[in-house]
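Every protein is a chain of amino acids, and every chain bends into a shape of its own. The protein below has been through that process, and both of its lines are reproduced in full.
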Amino acid sequence: MLFDISDLAPGGVAIDATVPIPPFPWEGGQVVACDPARLSGQLRPTSRGVELRGRYGTKAHLVCDRCLTGFDLPLEGEFRLFLVAQVGAEGMDEFERRAEDDPDAVDLYPLEGDVVDLAEVLREQVDLALPYRAICREECPGFCPGCGADLTKKEPCRCAGRPTDDRWTELARLKAVLEQRKGGTPTEGR
């Protein structure tokens, strides 16, 4: 959704819109699709640029990192951006200088021209709001790392009785010795 900011009234303009967010690539090759976002806010001219204050709400459609099933993650948030025009290399220098000199650490959003793409602004806000890992629910057991059983569907784990890898024998022996010492059993040479 494109919005022309070239001739905003001094008091600004209120925004209340439903903005479609295009799918975008995310962690691990996953592509995130979202429901159209509800955006309410205000655009107003300032000495720094055009201030965009907004509140959004949407649902992201993700795939759980543990069990690989799809789930919906409701997202909502508030943001404040200053839309700053930049032109060529010198414009980028000015943009970076403003970003460094900002004592309030306000987000600056570079613009090319007088049109802001609200869908792109919201895509960025949703991307920032997504969790580090997509987990459908905290107690999701996922798949067994040994045998691949789907523990979410209560498949029995087939790891018990499986032959162990001989390369781990010495480590298992060391673990047993350490556990024995931890239990308070005296050892030789102390």
